[in-house]
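Technical annex, item 7. During the second reporting period the consortium partners agreed on a shared format for inverse folding records so that results from different sites could be compared directly. Each record opens with the tokenized structure and is followed by the designed sequence. A conforming record, contributed by the partner at site C, is shown below for reference.
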């Protein structure tokens, strides 16, 4: 398999690169001085693309690679891959579900605790030497707060289970009601937001879910409500979110993702009612290794004509 060209558009993970190097001809696009020249030089040997949440395979790249057989994504989210184009051309697509579910759900709970108990602000308080001048202000209780979840897939379910352990009543919005759970279902996101204290975004990014959290939803969540986003930045209308936080129309937010990563609206830096993370939901050593193993396992399966481990297309 050493002669099979595997294109990686941007750096992702040292272990993944090392293991791909051992098996394939890994082509690092970000190191090429001129990208389109690099692609046309290697287009007849590239049979796979490894994408992630930042760079995948758009229609232009797919069209430029006549021998492309598979896009194996180092992510569960597939919003950077033109799935319709892949289907049309018979190109297989795989992702990394399940292995990252626990980490992302853990982080969602971590953000709820960090926001409500002001963990980051109180850490800054101690480091800044302010404790000697007086105790830190009171915070808000997490246990028992009602949690509304947008998208009850793997990550949404894992978040719900964890929140249940904190005695939080759970409700959710999804396209269809799930018969296997007893959580309260709301057929609209506005209704869900009106009836919970913490709203969590945990669905996939598609054309239907882009800006699923808009001004109406933010206003329904209200000045005491907390928004947690562990999905994708474009799920939320970011200018609306920023103005609601600045004007006090939304209580607080815990964000792991942003509309134009790695750009984060500077107005948020001044606010104490937000906790800002740099898209680290799946970023543990253990999980990133498991994700890399899945990417490689899918590529090996493809080139050995075996069933793919986690096929999407
Ligand atoms: C990223 C993610 O892929 O799985 C996803 O959809 O967003 C993350 O796991 C991670 O940043 C790796 O690039």
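Designed sequence (site C submission):
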């Amino acid at each position: 398999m050493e002669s099979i060209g595997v294109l990686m558009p941007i750096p992702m993970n040292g272990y993944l690169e090392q293991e791909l190097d051992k098996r394939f001809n890994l082509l690092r696009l970000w190191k090429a001085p001129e990208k389109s020249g690099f692609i046309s030089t290697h287009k007849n040997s590239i049979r796979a693309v490894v994408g992630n949440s930042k760079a995948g395979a758009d229609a232009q790249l797919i069209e430029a690679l006549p021998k492309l057989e598979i896009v194996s994504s180092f992510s569960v989210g597939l919003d950077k891959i033109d799935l319709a184009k892949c289907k049309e051309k018979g190109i297989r697509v795989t992702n990394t579900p399940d292995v990252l579910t626990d980490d992302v759900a853990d982080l969602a709970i971590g953000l709820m605790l960090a926001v409500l108990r002001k963990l980051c602000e109180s850490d800054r308080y101690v480091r800044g030497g302010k404790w000697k001048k007086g105790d830190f202000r009171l915070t808000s209780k997490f246990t028992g707060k009602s949690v509304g979840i947008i998208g009850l897939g793997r990550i949404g379910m894992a978040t719900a289970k964890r929140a249940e352990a904190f005695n939080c009543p759970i409700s959710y919005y999804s396209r269809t009601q799930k018969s296997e759970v007893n959580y309260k279902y709301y057929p609209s996101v506005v209704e869900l937001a009106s009836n919970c204290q913490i709203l969590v975004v945990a669905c996939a990014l598609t054309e239907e879910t882009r800006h699923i959290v808009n001004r109406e939803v933010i206003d329904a969540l209200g000045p005491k409500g907390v928004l947690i986003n562990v999905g994708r930045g474009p799920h939320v209308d970011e200018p609306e979110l920023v103005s609601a936080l600045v004007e006090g129309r939304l209580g607080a937010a815990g964000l792991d993702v942003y509309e134009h990563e790695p750009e984060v609206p500077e107005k948020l830096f001044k606010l104490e009612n937000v906790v800002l993370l740099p898209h680290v939901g799946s970023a543990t050593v253990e999980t990133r290794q498991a994700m890399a193993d899945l990417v490689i396992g899918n590529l090996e399966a493809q080139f050995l004509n075996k069933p793919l481990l986690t096929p999407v297309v």
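The pocket of 2-keto-D-gluconic acid is lined by residues 12, 52-53, 74-77, 100, 279, 281-282 (CB under 6 Å). The chain has two domains: 5-97+285-303, 101-276. All partners now use this format for quarterly exchanges.
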